[in-house]
Amino acid sequence: MVDFSSQPTMKGFFAPQRYEADILDCEFTGKVPTDLDGMFVRLGGDWFYPPKFPDDAPLHADGHISTFRFQNGRVSYKSRYVRTDRFKANLAAGRQQFGYYRNRQTDEPQVQSLDGTVANTTPFAFAGQLMALKEDSLPHLIDPNTLETTGKWDFGGRYRSLTFSAHPKVDPLSGEMIAYGYEATGPASRDVFAYTIDKAGQVVREARFQVPYVSIMHDIALTQQHILFPFGGYICTPERLAAGKIHWGWDNSLPSYIGILPRDGDGKDIRWFKGPLRCMMHTFNARTVGNKVILDAPFYDGNFFPFFHNVDNSPWARDKAKAFIRRLTFDLNSRHDGWTEEILFAPPVVDIGAVDRRFLSLDPRYVFTGFTDPAKPFDTDRAGNMAGRVTNSYGRFHLGAGKVDSYFAGPTHSLAEACFVPRRGSTAEGDGYIMGVASNFAEMRSEIVIADAQRLGEGDVARIILPFRAAPQVHGTWVDASELPALAGSETNGQGSARS
Fold it and tell me: pTM for this structure?
């Protein structure tokens, strides 16, 4: 028997699932658009065995991947655990053997030589492959039809970093992927390796450099001429790991840094800009205009994660855990090593969202992301004491006009990451659908909401209904059937059953 009783937060809607499932033909309301042919892929963490330490970071939960396969107006669902070395070792032992988040020195001796990643952050399709990504290891390859884990990918041995980014970027013009690994030579190392990988999955360029201090470098931004590497606040040192602590702590005394590297340069060409302390987790878009680089990103005012404690032992500041859509401008001709910053929209937002990927690195007008609209109702009688902790709306934020169009999920729902799906056959920016998972707290189940991205105020186009709670999600993405040859000719309904 698996006992989660010592983990008081793992109850109710957010209790571990501990099952894998197949639904051959999902229920839905409305009309599923027939031009959707592909998969909405989700990846997150679900504890198969309880954490070794009750105060471990939730980001250390086992990778759990799920797909909603859309075809001919029908949808099927499938979920599987990512078969990492850690998952397989724990399953064989029947218990948790791995210690604190990304601190291998706290693992039990018999597993310290294994890859300890949980592969639980980002699903990503490139060069005909579906990957499960976590920034402390190489990509894990996933069969898109069965969701079985088929191995790791080092790109023919030419990708030499020990780690691979959770958020690589694909240039919509060249089709190249820009990827990187930080702590590239081992835990707490200052080394970063950046790579350009062509459409066939071959490494064509490598650049190596070191960061001013070791921090979470979770995401980058891409322009047609530059790569931006932002980070701030979080810190890891060999001494911290030797003391048996969680990998990251937050240091309020540190500045933020953003490195700007020419795409045709090498490591010595990176230029570091320094600014006020921010939690820099995700970006939306960047572009190069003449001698200036402009970055749009939803950076937080301070430490977002309460489980990554302040190194000075001060309490976590909830009022700093707010993200705003900011525009940062860098003057490459200036000797000044800072940037100018403006907040484009007043309300705080969820820091994970989407732009139309066909316009990434160019000049997109729209950002799609979640936010909480305090004017919308929440039904505590039906949904419980979740008021103030829900994301009830998706927004289309018009970067030029300062206008927000919004979609409301309902008085008992909270939304995960917004995903933009282009309308098949259209080349206009923002013409398509917004898709994402809604947690229905009243009925203890998960739903996929689909709305017209140009008419968010009209509500649902369709909702896909699951009869249970799906495993938690960190990131989700749309993968068109044309991106994965293995999906060609596959059907939404096939054999399968729920498994636990």
Answer: 0.95
